[in-house]
Amino acid sequence: MANGILKGKKGIIFGALDDKSIAWKVAEFAHKEGAEIVLTNAPIALRMGTINELAEKTNSIVIPADATSIEDLTNLYEKSMEHLGGKIDFVLHSIGMSVNVRKGKAYYEQNYDWTQKGMDVSATSFHKTIKAAWDLDALNEWGSVVGLSYVAAQRVFHSYNDMADNKALLESIARSFGYHYGLKKNIRINTVSQSPTITTAGSGVDGFDGFYKFAEDLSPLGNASSEDCANYCITLFSDYTRKVTMQNLFHDGGFSSMGMSQDVMDTYMKNIGDKKS
Description:
By secondary structure, the chain is of the alpha/beta class. It is built from 10 helices and 7 strands. It is globular and about 70 Å long.
């Protein structure tokens, strides 16, 4: 049930591709909570997805922007403020890509040109997104910027590859820029470390089904869905979290605090028994 906690707020949401994406759910929920939004994605992603359906559903517009381009981002903020009639209150950065993962390169066999490209898209774009807003003074005081992360920034997941490095940088940017923007305008910047989630992007990671099942079995509350994540992001955009900043917030059903669960141990012991027999 909507409570109107974003009534009167204006936001920009990066990364909505299709109705499986977290950004798509965030846009839907932000609209239900009373916010006015602008949707954006890279031009190539806009051609691949169905974002115009989301724009119609949320009474919003779509402004193409390559998040690795300061020029594109500047244009995005300027046009968004013009359309929305004022400065921005919240931004969601839901962007990630690794060419090494797509091409099946192991972590120890990286193509460094691909590595640099993935880092620019997945992490440096977060810095650029915030920097463009900083230069234009595009965010209202007490605004909120959220980037989506994953626990692989702290722990090894064997096939997550260089995306783990990208997420670690993303989280560092949130801390560092959170300090500077907090001093300047009380802007809060956080990352949300989400459970493995069944999305178009997430499902493309090798071994995703195993990640998903393991996290589901280990987490006492089970995996958080894209809808759960959207609700959490909404709270971070709202005035109820004004003093939360520079944090990496685990939204994973308790996975990040677990060592071993009974379900996982039972499965492991069963596998040992099967091998012996």
